[in-house]
Amino acid sequence: MPRTALLVSTALLAALLPVSAARAAPAADAPAPVPVDRFEGEVPFASQPAEGLFTWGGDSDDPPALRLAERPDAPEGQQVLTGDYDISGYGGFTHDFAANEPAHDWSAHRGIRFWWEGQNTGRTIAFEIKDGGAHGEASELWTTSFADDFSGWKLIELPFTDFVYRTDYQPVGGIDHVLGLTGMWGYALTLPAGTKGRFAMDGVELYGTADQSLRASVTTDAAVHPVEEGGTASVRLTVATTGSRPLDEPVTVTYRTGGGSAGTGDYVPAEGEFTFPAGTASGTSRVVRVRTLKDRAAEAAETIPLNLTVTGAKAPAETPQIVVDAHGLPYLNTKLPVQRRVADLLSRMSLEEKAGQMTQAERGALTAPGDIAAYSLGSLLSGGGSTPTPNTPEAWAKMIDGFQLRAQATRFQIPLIYGVDAVHGHNNLVGATVMPHNIGIGATRDPRLAERTGAVTAAEVRATGVPWDFAPCLCVTRDERWGRSYESFGEDPALVQSLETVIQGLQGRADGRDLSRSDKVLATAKHFVGDGGTAYGSSTTGTYTIDQGVTRVTRQQLEAVHLAPYATAVDRGIGSVMPSYSSLDIAGDGQGPVKMHARADMINGVLKGRMGFDGFVISDWAAIDQLPGDWASDVRTSVNAGLDMIMVPYAYKDFRTTLVDEVRAGRVSERRIDDAVSRILTQKFRLGLFEHPYADTRGAAEIGSAAHRAVARQAAAESQVLLKNAGGLLPLKPSQKVYVAGSNADDIGNQSGGWTVTWQGSSGNITPGTTILQAMRKAGGNVTYSKDASAPTSGYDVGVVVVGETPYAEGVGDVGNGHDLELSAADQAAVDRVCAAMRCAVLIVSGRPQLIGDRLGAIDALVASWLPGTEGDGVADVLYGKRPFTGQLPVTWPRSVAQLPINVGDTAYDPQFPYGWGLTTLTRVPAGGERTLKALGVAARAAERSGAREAGRTLVTEARLIVQQKAGATMTAAVAAPFAEADHLLLTGHYGKAVERLTEAYRAA
């Protein structure tokens, strides 16, 4: 557990002595101090994997600003490292030694020390060192801390014996769980969050002489050892040494059971002592066995601590716990209905245990792994980019199993429910199958395919031990300036509803009977309600312009546009719902804008009451912090509004304590708590977590498999929307010489977008997959590539320019927050150069429409490629005619920013391309013009009357192709409005009226 660093006596004199005299001379037998950093410019500011200083943080505002500053009072030399910070989530800085250079050997020294200019804030600062492994990003992390409770320069000394192993952000299972110090890769400091601050640091060095208690450690195989009543627990104790050399001196271990919740009649007491003699090989183990006793009583779980005293070596960081499993209680009986199991368990729980079940923490924020049991936590999550090291399926499973093991040390052994944002595949995992983002799935208009993408995602997520997915997003995006536009299936609630088949892909059947399967997960409908309708300029979150803003609607608009998808989700058996950060302002209700996390009328009244939602409501990341009032008010307001579990990533201790206090004060009713916990426990039972809390990895071999990637490839192909195709330029022929250019032609990170490996995503080769350029070459294309179109352009039959956006997520991507809807200058230049030299096709890889303005006339073929994910082969499939273009616009493509927001059904509707637009290839367009449209209308009305959905869709599609062929690339408001409305009518089952509107568009073309 982090602790305040010990300061040697010389440091305590620092305030009384001149800086230059404050450090005492080393003892006669101690090695001279070894400098690590003097901050005189010898170490550059850099980024991994080069050697240097670099910053990091939870979002773009969190990394501190570092600089080297000349100071007359510098403890060492002329310069110090100084910085400013204002951290809302987490942030700090690291000095990494280059990954391609030998690691440093610190094993001869007692500890690490440095000068720190205290600001007397009283805040704790974590100090971390990187030990062992192949390089600094595959090393073990060991941490301690010190308090900034002084003013002026002070020498901080951190003995290596104070450092404890971090259980998060680790090579899972560790390299050896021993602070070896022979392969060190650097250090890092985590600065305090929640307040502005500054710091200065100087003279980092190694000091003192190591002793055996550092070189040797005794470790246990696990901190928790569950055992059935009457069974025998075996606790393995291992001695390990720095450099794996034999012990220099003997190590003695004394052990004794006692002090836990188990009584003397529950086990046979164990007591004894053994010694690892001098010369013992590193890695030698001894086993201590503790035998438990059977009785006839049904009981909750009981703990038996194995107390250890170690001399001659560092003792284990935690006392091992033998846990006699709960047994004989009704809630453990799988033959009973879930409702009875829930009622029985709830009746046995204390208020503190119930409050713990309502608490969700970020895994990286746990101050100690034992907090899972100490606070009876109900859930952990991985935020975007919060992954184990290495980021592999095996590491995920081991990490989560380790967390679940901790939950076994609680009275009722209630398993954790672990959640991730797998919003387009298991996107946090390197090597997973990354699907197109929802905007691309919306373009497919294919409910069966949406379900298959959900099924692949669920299988890959559950195979890593994760049973809960914070997806799908059921927002109805109404303004492309929104940085989350790509998380939506589209602007039409009917389109969103039609693709909620993804819920069955994730969860299985609506009654929840499939949730316990090893290839299904609990799904989450988000963000309730109206997040896609926020007004531009209404956000008050940092530099965001529209995300987390205010949605202003009439009651009718709220019902028809934003609530409709949630009613469908409830009918489909959605297991959890997440409210939106945004505020809702309903005309005439007299409340004004109210944060959704506080809207009891919508959560308790509409969602749980009118819609009959029986799952549980989970808050968004630290969202209750945005509610007005103090912390206690935030807690009671959100819980009373109907939130059942609160995502408090870093405040899990405070939340549980405050919630208990609010209940005892009568401000939150016990009935509300029981309702919340019942809902949570119900889903845990349905998921089978009580019987199988640990990862079932039998499906792990299928993660990123050819079969899964085939589904993503089909989704990528069907998502491509052909907006223009003058002269039938597409599909390409393998015989053609193709000149490929553009920033997004050969970038797997750009084509996958945000929420890929990290929260914001990033450009570059971040995960296995096939770029569009690679796919074109695989398809047999005769391709030459010049990213910036600087290579000669003569001698080619056709050009393909792949341009668009770079990754972003949430409000970071809002237009006006460093983003716009224009192509970059480099992309514009590439388009202009290629399209001036040859016939050209332009592919726009983006999360939303991009404004192409007067360039459209120079472009022969235009494709909205959206964010296709890792399977660029799907894009090549339609480019080279292996599959036809069939995608349709899920959102309106505007002519200019001035038109925004623009959506199907608007009274003024004159876009570049209307909602539903999408040319096709390899498909014969019916002849006969208006005569054929009349016949299609008759047949469509008949299909509507008989409920023949497939026939109706086919008939409307044929009518749409006729209209598109006539309209061509020249779009007018008279064509666009009825055309877009026809697609909405098709989705709502009004096939006859859809053809009528298409006929109107045909006449206007």
Automatic annotation (TrEMBL):
GO terms for molecular function: beta-glucosidase activity; cellulase activity. Pfam families: Calx-beta, CBM_11, Glyco_hydro_3, Glyco_hydro_3_C. InterPro entries: CalX-like_sf (IPR038081), Calx_beta (IPR003644), CBM11 (IPR005087), Cellulose_Degrad_GH3 (IPR051915), Galactose-bd-like_sf (IPR008979), GH (IPR017853), Glyco_hydro_3_AS (IPR019800), Glyco_hydro_3_C (IPR002772). It catalyses: Hydrolysis of terminal, non-reducing beta-D-glucosyl residues with release of beta-D-glucose. GO terms for cellular component: membrane. It comes from the Bacteria. This is beta-glucosidase. Belongs to the glycosyl hydrolase 3 family. Residues 205-309 form the Calx-beta domain. It is an enzyme of class 3 (hydrolase). PROSITE patterns: GLYCOSYL_HYDROL_F3. Residues 1-24 form the signal peptide. Keywords: Calcium, Glycosidase, Hydrolase, Repeat, Signal. One of its GO terms (biological process) is cell communication. SMART domains: Calx_beta (SM00237). Its EC number is 3.2.1.21.
